Every structure is written in structure tokens, then in C-alpha cells.
Batch of 4 targets.
Target 1
Amino acid sequence: MNGMIGTIVGLFAFWMAACCFCGFKKRFVAFLAVGFTGLAANMAWMVFGLKADPLEDNLLIAQTAAAIYALSAFGIGLFLARVRRLWSESRITSKD
């Protein structure tokens, strides 16, 4: 794997973590900003880096997949926040 691909994969992982964090903190507007920024960066990389046509079928499929990944990461963040909340509510404290 060359340096450019490694950088793109690292940025994608960071983007997914940011989407998950937005879900964990229940920041819906921040998720929209992070999501659109990531999709724009993905589109720019494919159009300018890979010289793909902006309306090419494969590019649109990749953008749709990236949007689904972002929504999934956001949902996982929401789920983790709920698990954390329920975990802390179910804590048993000893009162002596």
C-alpha cells in the first residue's frame, strides 16, 4: 500500500470515528457537517485524484456506500450512548 492510499484510509477511519462521536454526544447538526465534509472530500478525491466522471455509476455507488457507513457509525454512537446511560442507571450502590 502506498502512502496516498494509507492516508486516505486513515482519513476515512478518522471520519468514521467523528461520525460515531457525534452520535455518542447526540450532536445531529455536527453530524450533518461532518458527514457532508467527508462526502465532499471523498468526491474530490475520486474526481481529482482518480479522474472519475462526477456522474459515473461507480462514483455514485461509492458515495452512497460512504453515506451509509456514516449513518451506521452515527447509529452505533447513539447505541453506545444509550448503553452507557442504562449501564450507569443500573449501578447498585451500597448505603451503609
Note: The longest helix spans residues 57-89.
Target 2
Amino acid sequence: MNKTTMDYADYAEYDRRQRGIERHLLAAFLGGLVVGLVGMLTAGKGPEWLGQLYDPYVYLALSLTVGATASGFGWALLTTFLAAVTTLVAAMGASAVRGDVGFDIIGGSAAGLNWTLVLLVGLGLLGYVTRRNDRWGDLAAGAVGAMLLADVLDRATPGSINTEPAFWPVPAIVVGGLSVALVVALRRNLAGRVCAVALTALFAGLFAMGMTGVSAGWIPLAAQAAAAIPLP
């Protein structure tokens, strides 16, 4: 009787896990659909600062959330890819409805579209790794924060590759502050938070040095072209 009870409990737990995975897949699909459609259908129809905050940070937040809530690394890869592809397809579909057809809607070109997909999936996988309670988790959290701050620096710094004058100061300060708060929230203890914030500052500082090198002509033109591919 005890063996039967234990077997039933195991099957029930397995069933709950499978149902959770199914719900997560559906949520990733629907999340990407909503984010992509809303982003394109409302583009240019609201305040400029709202568009600057929505694109790309809502897309990035979706990938990060999907990856961080996955039940395993493989599922994080699958669900973040599903969410990213759904987002991009929905955005292109919404743009087609508005009369703007082409692959350059996202990322500026076909190559930019592919790079955008890689960035979104990569961020989702980093989000999953942040669940670890070791230095790998700290490193992943630091990398997430650095990616966000790097985009802020690129968009807010005059003369940079993807500079947007209207992005400074309010949108840049809001996103920068939220990025640091996100890094802190991703870690579960003080030591991890300090380490993750320090890594964020280090990685963002290296990016800022790279931007300086590009502006001064120290970095070859090929590297500048690679850096010119924007976030989604």
C-alpha cells in the first residue's frame, strides 16, 4: 500500500511538472505575441520617451523573465527562442498591417534581425543562470546589468554609434537606475549582490572604454561596424 501511494505521488508530481512546462511555453508564446504587436502598433503614437523605454527594454525584459522562470536550461533555451521569434514575427506582421513590409523593421537589416534574435535568447539564458547561488549566478547577473547599461551608454552618449539625443537625461537615468536595481534583485544575499554590482560596473566600464576607442579611431572600422548593430 505504501509503495502504491509513493508511486501515485511520483506520478502526480511528474504531471504537475509537465503542466507547469506547458503553461510556461504558452506564456512565452503569448508574451512574445503581445509585446511584438503592441510595440509596433503603438510605435510613434505616444510620447517619444515612452517609445524609447519600450524599445528595446520591454523586449529584453520579456526574454529575461521567460529565461529566469524556466524549469531547466534546455527549456530556457527553447522558451526564450519561442518568445523572441514570436515577438519578431508579431512585430513584422503589425508593421505589414501599417504598410511597412521588410526585414529591416527589427535590427535595421537581415543581419541585424539575426543579431537581435541572438541577443534576446542570450539574455534569456543569462536570466536562467542568475538563479544559481554561486559565482556563476553573480557573473550572469553582472552580465545582464552590463548589457542594459551598455545600451544606455550607447544611446545617451553624444557622438556614439547609436546615439539618441532625446534619450538623455530622463529615459537614460530611469533605465540605468532600474538596471542596477534589477542586478540587486536577482541575487539572494549581500555578498552576491555586491559581487554582481561590481561585475556590472566592470563590464560597463570596459564597454565605455571601447566606445572611447571607437570615437578616437583606436578600434578598427570592422569592429565599429559590428558594434553598430543595435539592440532590438
Note: The chain has a mean pLDDT of 81.
Target 3
Amino acid sequence: MNFEWDELDLTAGGVRDAHGTITCNDIPAGEPGCALRLKEEASPFMQCLWNRALADVMSNHVTVDGKSYLGAGAKFGVKVFTRDIAYSGVLGVNRTHPELMRTSLRFTRDLRLHLGLKVPSEYNASAKGIPCEVLAINDETFMNTYRTNSFLRRTDDVIWLWAYHDLIGTEAKNEELRWLLDTGERCFSELYDPFFDVTDGLYFGQASFVDIHVPSKGIKNSGYPHEWDFADCLRLKTTCTNALYQRGLQVMADVATRLHESSAVAWVERAAEHREAMRRQLMDSEGRFHFYKLPDGSKEPRRSALASALVILCGVVNEDEAAAVLSGYPHTCFGIPLLDPPRKGSEFCYYHNRAAWPFVDALFCWAEQMATGKDTTPYAAALAARTCRPDGTFHEVVRLPDGDVRCSASQLWSAAGFINTCFRANLVEEGREGSTL
């Protein structure tokens, strides 16, 4: 696989960009935990990157108190991140490490349903109409006790439905389908329905994975205006999170239908009504999607790479409409900007603003190929490969516009993005099982 564009150059022997060259000598070996291999036609460098991606997945396998699940990356330790696990599964870890994905996703359901809408004292948002059950403990104690944040920092939790549905596939046994339906019904009833606004048919909450402000530490994150408080970040109707809800509703409809449940009709109707609400209120006259809708009904003029990808991947738009969704979205040699245009001002640091995220690059390239028919895998592979610095593992985020690779090493969903690219490029050998666990 070769790619050449401006200062980005992927060859059989390595990747070169404005920051230097990475070759096989820079990629350390590791334990893949998976029998799947690339075809012989794949270049030596792609082979090295594939083995590294599998090893990065395995490096995030943690066991705590007898519970086994996938962590998010080297710097995150044993913290539980449903979104990281679920996005990684959809991107391909469901196929490479299926049993580890299964135990991870089920573990997140046990933990999340146990916690419900409980929040530490700093996250009392009830005055602004945000559902929550306030505990008399602080944020640090909450995290130390449960190893995850409260639901108010995880309002994109519904993504697990997409991931589990993808994991079990079309030949799933009834026991798996029954667990999925029953658990999904509990999640909607106890966690998701309280965030549904009957007045416009959309769900409110954060933009998927874009961290809200942190009241316990006085931190203002870069994905939202700094004059907002943390609750303001939750009162939004965001395109990306609603796309995940749309996929979740589709999953519920499919599983209920496969089990011949009478509830199937209601789930089908809910999915159809929600899809139309998204199209009516979040799509503009050119077929593009706003980042979010504000409580006063106004729309954020910026677009989101993740939201743009998800409305295609989650079926919010049809095949004929998909190209318009992505029209004019910028591409760079360092990645695809998460927000376009970025927020201005020195206070808006790079993390969720002037940045490209490798897992989002992978999802965007996947959606772009679906929309245009153009083979996007060489570009996606080159972008992923350049993040393997300085230690030869897949990293968390890329700062724009200078392309500096930043933050956590062995990042789960970054590695998953490369895995996705290899599957899409038809480079993975067929006929072998995934996980060797």
C-alpha cells in the first residue's frame, strides 16, 4: 500500500512526513493475542503496524477484582471508558479479539446500570433540568471507588448497543439476543429516556467523547465555549451523540424483530421518528450537519468530523445524500480536524479543538469511502502510521496545525482505527479465528 500527498508519504518500508520518517525498526514487537495475520501481499511496514496494533489492544487488557476488560490507553490505567471500548469494537477489535470485547462490554453494562444516574456532589445539575442523583461524595472519591466517571460525563453511553450488535453478528444465538434486548431496555428506561426531549424528538447530552467542563477542578475544556458551566455542555442536542442513539434504536428494533417480540413495532417507529427529527433539526439546506443545536433552538455553525462520519455510518442519511454530508470538509497531512472551523482564542487548546484524533480519522475515511466510492485506505493508513511516535505505538491525538503527536501511548481506539483500515483494504487473511485468549 502506497500513498503520497504533499508532505505525507507511505511506502512499503515506512512513512515520512514533516516530522521525519518511521520504519519497521521503530515499531517494537509485542504480544498480539490474536491469530489473524495480514496477507503476504501486505508490505513489511504494514505487517509491522498490524502486529503493533494488535499488541496495543492486548496492552490494554486489565483485570481488577476478578473483572477483565479493555482499558483506553497507557496513561489511563484501569479506568473504564465504554466509548473507547465500543468505538474500538466497531472499528475492528470485535473481529480480532471478540471474547475480550464481549467481556469488556458486558462489564460496562454491569457497572453503568449499577451506578445509574448517581453523580458526585460537584455534578449537581438538577437546577438546569439535567437528571441526576447526587451522592455526598466528591469527584475524586467517586472515581477512586468506581474507576469510571458518572453518567453526566458519559452521556454517549448508548454506543455500546452498536458495538455489541456488531460483535454478535447475524448468526447470534437467542441467548445473546435476549441479553442484548433486555439490557438495552433497561439502559433506555433507566439511563437514556430521561435525556429524551419530547418537544423536538432528540436526546440531549455531550457531543460524543468531547469532554464537558470539569467543575471539581475548575477546568474548561476546549470543545465548548469557556463561558459555559458544565451543565450547559449537557443541554445540547448534538449530531454525533444523536447518531449513536439512532444506531441504538435500530439495534433494539432489529433484535426485538429477530426475537419475534411485540415491542419490535414500537422500536421501529421510535427509530424512524428519531431519524426524521435529526434530519429536520440538525441537517442544513446543503445536506451537511451542524455540530449541535442549542436550547434556544439555534444551531452551532461548526461541523464535526465525527458527527459527519456517524450520520453516514449510522444510517441517518441515505446513499444519495452521503457525499453532501462530507462536502468541503478539510483534510490535512496530519489528520482530519475534529472541528471545522476550530474555536478561536489562545484559551482553546488543541485537545478537542485544534486537533485530529486517529480513531475519528478512521471513521471519517470509512464513511468517505461509503459516500464517494473512492479508496480511502491508503490515506487512512498513512495517517495512522505517522502517530506511531516517539515510541512506535499508536498514540491518542494529533495537535493541529503543526501535526505534533500527543498524549497516551498504545491508545486502544487509535490502534483499532488502523485495524479497521486493514480490514477495509482486504489485507487480512480469511479463515483464521480472532482472539487466542
Note: The two ends are 30 Å apart (CA to CA).
Target 4
Amino acid sequence: MAKQVKSHNEVMLVGRIINRQKDIRCNNMKSIRVKLALPNDLDYNLNPNIAFVYIYDDGEIFDKLKPNQAIAINGHIESNWGQRVIADVISLIKEPRRA
């Protein structure tokens, strides 16, 4: 294949944060890499799917991203140099406290 096709696809992911890493470079910008556990749509009793998402760091978002936090991400897939999911919009999901 002489040329690599650049494709951008929109994605929406809803899951829980497993862990996060700071000081990652993505597209030559300071980023955070978040490992997400996504529920298996066919059967919730199966092991979750795992996805890595890159979030551009503004200096304040890292403290809000805590392990086991429910999160929804709207982003896109870039495949210029390998496939990466880049977050465009992040929504932290509030859950009711259990007594």
C-alpha cells in the first residue's frame, strides 16, 4: 500500500475509569491517557471491554478524573500514526450515594 488513508470517525464511549496517566504527548500536545472499562453490550456479566482515550490536558482536569468514576466521552478516532481515540467532550456522570 503506497499511501495510508487518513480517516476520522466519531465515537461515543460510556464507562468507568480504571486508571489514568499524566504527562503523555498526543499530537504534540500535553495530554492525559485514560484507561476505560466499557460494559459488554451483549452480556453485562462478561468482562468489560478496555479502551484507551487521550484527553488534552488543561491543567485542571486530572484531579477530576478519579478511578472508578463513571464517564461519558464524545470524541474521534485518528489513524495517522496508529489508532487513537481523542476526546472532544467529557461528561462526568454523577451517581446517587448509597446508604
Note: Strands lie at 8-26, 29-38, 49-56, 70-78, 84-92.
